[in-house]
Amino acid sequence: MKLGIIGGEGVEKYSLSPVMHTAALKACGLKGEYRAIPVKPEGLESWLGIEAPKLDGFNVTMPHKEAVYRWLKENGRIGSDIADSIGAVNTVKVVEEKGVRRLVGYNTDGRGFFDTVGDQNALRGKSVLLLGAGGAAKAIAVWLAEATQIGSLKIWNRHLERAEELAQKVNTLQTHCRAVAVKDLRAVPIEQMSLIVNATPLGMHKHEESPLDFSRLRKGQAVYDIVYEPRETRLIAIARKHGCKVIRGDEMLAAQGAEAFDIWTDEWRGGKPVRVDGKFIREIMGDALENEIKLRAGNRQDA
Ligand code: NAP
After folding, report:
1. Which of 100, 101, 187, 293 falls between 20 and 30 A from 236, CA-CA?
2. How far, in Å, is the centroid of ligand 1 from the Cα of 260?
3. Residue 100 forms beta bridges with which residues?
4. What does the pLDDT average to over 117-132?
5. Sheet holding 195-198, edge to edge
6. Cα–Cα distance between 165 and 186 in angstroms, integer?
7. What atom of ligand 1 comes closest to residue 204's alpha carbon?
8. Which of 2, 13, 31, 65 is catalytic?
9. Is 272 one of the catalytic residues?
10. Closest by Cα among 104, 150, 159, 105 to 129
């Protein structure tokens, strides 16, 4: 199988996807490769038209997720309603239709979040605080409103207008969830939130800390930090100390990867019982990720 990930400059250095997918291909006994491919925004259209059909499937990362979605609406197909609600694509499958190679787009980021957030029934009707309004936050917000059926969503973002846009988008979905943008995190009743999600790079290696007042976290709340480097962010460490249920970013990364792998390899596995609910591939990917993140952290300390 020919697989890969397209991203901006340096994707071959920072992306963890090649490690995860190479481990999954090997574990399933599938011959193939998964390469990181840098594509400049000005070269995206011609890459999608000429190079993409030569692959069997690929992931899409920053800064191309929304541009690929728009291109597929004109020149390919969107394979799931949720990718339409989100307006961004992170997974593309190449299919043969009447002798023509066509690109079909999906979004597995939100699914990866949903699969790892824990007891979704316990979140129904509850209040959630989301930090961030970028691509990942958008996917998470749509899944929280549509699939998890939360009752209310407060969205904080560095640039307030993006939080307002996302809140508006959530409020146009046919769900019971009411979303609002919040300007000042100090005014949010953190103690009353059932789930707090960080979908910004705050707390990531080389980034500043989140403005969230960690001392207001309470036992019984769930805290999800989608940052995966470091594996254990300060938010996760403090939330754990407060008795919160914590979910790390590498869990979402492995789950969204497993979902993409399932989309691509469905027929290639030839009925092999390698995966029933994604757990097998997710574990393989999670182990590969853990090793690679530790290796990178060790290399940084040596440097
Ligand atoms: P994106 O579309 O570029 O959005 C970035 C978001 O982070 C925006 O809300 C942006 O706020 C905010 N932000 C960036 N720098 C900031 C800063 N210095 N201070 C405060 N806010 C800041 O990126 P994305 O794809 O949503 O990714 C966001 C983070 O999630 C990244 O760290 C990425 O690695 C991680 N991620 C993890 C997974 C996973 O599976 N675990 C999946 C996807 C992404 P503004 O709108 O104000 O610029």
Report:
1. 187
2. 21
3. 97
4. 94
5. 178-182, 152-156, 127-131, 195-198, 222-225, 245-247
6. 21
7. 32
8. 65
9. no
10. 150
Q: Is residue 183 within 8 Å of 116, Cβ to Cβ?
A: no
- Model confidence at 275, pLDDT cuts 50, 70, 90, reads low
Contact 129, 78 (CB under 8 A): no
Write the residue with the smallest CA distance to atom 32 of ligand 1: 201
Question: In Å, how far from its chain's centre is CA 275?
Answer: 20
pLDDT at 276: 43
Rounded to the nearest angstrom, the distance between the alpha carbon of 95 and the centre of ligand 1 is 31
Q: Report the nearest atom of ligand 1 relative to the CA of 252.
A: 40
Q: In the structure, which protein residues have their CB atom closer than 6 angstroms to any atom of ligand 1?
A: 62, 109, 112, 132-137, 157-159, 162, 199-202, 204, 226-228, 249, 252-253, 256
Separation of alpha carbons 77 and 245, rounded Å: 38
Look at the block and give the residue holding tokens 């996760």: 236
Residue 270: the pLDDT is 59
Q: What spacing in Å lies between the alpha carbon of 199 and ligand 1's midpoint?
A: 6
Structure tokens at 116: 């790892």
CA of 101 to the centre of ligand 1 (A): 33
Mean pLDDT across 61-88: 94
Q: Which residues contact 75 (CB under 8 A, 6 or more apart)?
A: 48, 49, 103
Q: Which atom of ligand 1 is nearest to the CA of 250?
A: 41
Can you tell me which residue has the tokens 């690109």?
103
Point out the ligand 1 atom lying closest to the alpha carbon of residue 256: 40
Strand-by-strand arrangement of the 33-38 sheet:
33-38, 2-7, 57-60, 91-97, 100-106, 77-78
Question: Is the overall model pTM greater than 0.85, yes or no?
Answer: yes
Question: Which amino acid, one-letter code, is at 16?
Answer: L
Terminal CA-to-CA distance of the chain, rounded, Å?
Answer: 36
Mutate to test the pocket of ligand 1, among 13, 162, 200 (most ligand atoms within 8 A of CB): 200
